């Protein structure tokens, strides 16, 4: 290769002819000082002003190229590892595949899925009697209104954060029924049942345990459930638990300091959701009419109310906690209002 004037890059045909020569610019993993044989410098040019005969790259630029290549490789590896962490087992991200949960558990392969269903149409998930979930229902009168229900469970835990995921052993939620009619979905061992939801006379309360995928846990072909008898008497009579009768809807505003009236129709809330400001200790009546059966839930207070289709239902609560609390529906997931308690 013939010498070139100072600063000139090699001609394209010269560079092509020397393609097989080693070059520090094309070997980013090594320092350019190790490729002395691939350079041609003229005696009157300094090292830093010289260029490689193979590609015409200055030594400083070659070092920068090498470092850039190494950084790009590390970045690509990091992105590849991050992508694997997000997808977990190679598929889309899931909400139920938690740390410490095996892939077999996350697949929902627990027990035997039967073709038989419970009274409301959920398929049964059969498990052996030994170690199977168990539940007992205890009913206690509430000093203010209605009753407090306690679910005593064994070999079972409530998992509200993974509802809708795969069935995991001994986990899920519960349903509460009054005489075979669903009142609410339960995500914990306690539930307050307002007297307004229970007519006079003898009734049967039932709690049934479900998996996260909404199949009913079953043993020997029967759902895992607990029952209790409830017989409210007329208001004011001994044994009526104070509010044992079913008060009329028109009495609700007189018992409360504030009344919020809400209508749900065709998936829309009227009036539009807004904040309801309350002073601590005030009683608020939530009067809700929905065109479809649903469940009202007050976050922070863990109060629930069944909403029969086309009928007005009223929930009265005492705002004894300060903060901002959402009131929403379970099935349609609509925010009805926010209670701001100061």
- Please describe the biggest sheet, giving its number of strands, its sense, and whether it closes into a barrel: 5 strands, mixed
Strand element count: 21
Shape: extended
| Backbone CA Rg | 36 Å
Mean pLDDT, to the nearest integer, reads 74
What is the number of helices? 4
Point out poorly predicted stretches: 7-22, 24-45, 84-107, 234-254
> What's the helical proportion of residues?
10-25%
Helix-strand pattern, N to C?
Answer: HHHEEEEEEEEEEEEHEEEEEEEEE
User: Which structural category do the helix and sheet elements fall into?
Assistant: mainly beta
- Beta-strand proportion: 35-45%
Distance between the termini: 87 Å
Q: What oligomeric state is this?
A: single chain
In short:
By secondary structure, the chain is mostly beta strands.
Task: Describe the protein's architecture and organization.
The protein has helices spanning about 10-15, 60-85, 105, 250-255; strands at about 110-115, 125, 135-140, 145-155, 155-160, 170-180, 180-185, 190-195, 205-210, 215-220, 220-225, 225-230, 260-265, 270, 275-280, 285-290, 295-300, 305, 310-320, 325-330, 335-340. It is mainly beta and about 350 residues long. The strands form 5 sheets. Strands 5, 6, 7, 9 and 12 form a 5-stranded mixed beta sheet that branches. The protein has a 5-stranded mixed beta sheet with strand order 15-21-20-17-18, with no helix packed on it. The model is unreliable at about 5-20, about 25-45, about 85-105 and about 235-255 (pLDDT under 50).
